[in-house]
Structures are given as C-alpha cells and as structure tokens.
Amino acid sequence: MRQYGQQIEEWARLPVEDIPLNPVVGDHEPILVGSFEFVCGWDGATRRGSHSASGMVLMTPSRVVLRASGIQIPVIDDPAMVELTALREAILLCLGQGFASVRFEGDAKVVIDKIRRGDSRDSRM
User: Fold this and answer.
1) What's the fold here for domain 2-117?
2) What are phi and psi of 5, to 5 degrees?
3) What per-residue confidence (pLDDT) applies to 10?
4) How far is 32 from 43, CA to CA, in rounded Å?
5) How far is CA 118 from CA 45, 62, 83, in A?
6) Is 86 exposed, middle or buried, given 0-12, 13-18 or 19+ CB atoms closer than 10 A?
7) CA-to-CA distance for 91 and 1, rounded, in angstroms?
8) Of 30 and 93, which is predicted with more confidence?
9) Which pLDDT belongs to residue 35?
10) Residue 39: how many CB atoms within 10 A of its CB?
11) Cα 15 to chain centroid, rounded
12) Angle, helices 109-117/79-97, rounded to nearest 10 degrees
C-alpha cells in the first residue's frame, strides 16, 4: 500500500500546465455541471482471489479529459474499500493540483449513501 500512496502523491504533484488536453470523442453533448470548474469521475473494481483496481478521470465540464489514472491494488479485496480507495485517489489528485471547485462522480452506492448521511461510524470512511 505504501508504494500505491507514493505513486498517487507523485502523480498529483505534476504541474497543471503539463496536462495534455485530449478531447473526448463521442456523440454526446457536453454535460453542464453548474458552477463547477472540473469534473472527476472515479471507480473501483475487485475480483475475489485476484487483484483490485481503482481509477479516475479529471475533466472539464464539457468532458475534455485532462488526466486519467488507473492502478492495481493487490492488497484490498473488499468492494466498498476499493471504491473508497478510488475516491481517495481522485481527491488526492485534485488537492495536489490545487483544483478547488470539483464535482466528483461515482457509481458506488454504498460510498455515496454513507457520504450523504455523513456516516463516520464506518472506520473505512
């Protein structure tokens, strides 16, 4: 886990100016997200007896990809913990880059519900 954390921290320190602007190709219209300057999508996946992975994509509100990251996590096989790790990676990236106005998007109901409730009783949160 230490190596994983170091990789995230090193990656998050890269200067914003070095981010290549690669437009997303697709037939969708840009999605407006209110007053947020950036959108950060995150997700985690796990397979028991194998490895887990987390990933994130940092975009403009019109879905121009600024940065994307994915990493294997060999130690964690709890789905909720993998999702939390993916969200943590996304938050660390945004904080490291100095992005203050970010909308985080994820599909992990267990994580989203706990955040909405402010449930800090779960030690994973």
Assistant:
1) Nucleotidyltransferase; domain 5 (3.30.420)
2) -65, -40
3) 55
4) 21
5) 24, 30, 17
6) buried
7) 17
8) 93
9) 54
10) 20
11) 18
12) 70
Q: How far apart are CA 76 and CA 48, in angstroms?
A: 9
Count of Cβ atoms closer than 10 Å to residue 113 Cβ: 10
Distance CA 34, CA 22 (A): 22
**Phi, psi values for residue 70, rounded to 5°:** -145, 145
Higher pLDDT, 99 or 4: 99
pLDDT at position 28: 40
Q: What ranges in 1-125 are assigned the alpha helix state H?
A: 2-12, 79-97, 109-117
What are residue 71's DSSP bridge partners? 54
Report the distance separating Cα 22 and Cα 38, nearest Å. Answer: 15
Amino acid at residue number 27 = D
Q: Which pLDDT tens digit goes with each residue over 109-122?
A: 888 787 777 765 65
Residue 28: CB atoms within 10 Å: 7
What percent of the chain is predicted at pLDDT more than 70?
A: 66
Beta bridge partners of 70: 55
Whether residue 24 is predicted with pLDDT greater than 60 in this model: the reply is no
Q: How confident is the model at residue 96 (pLDDT cuts 50, 70, 90)?
A: confident
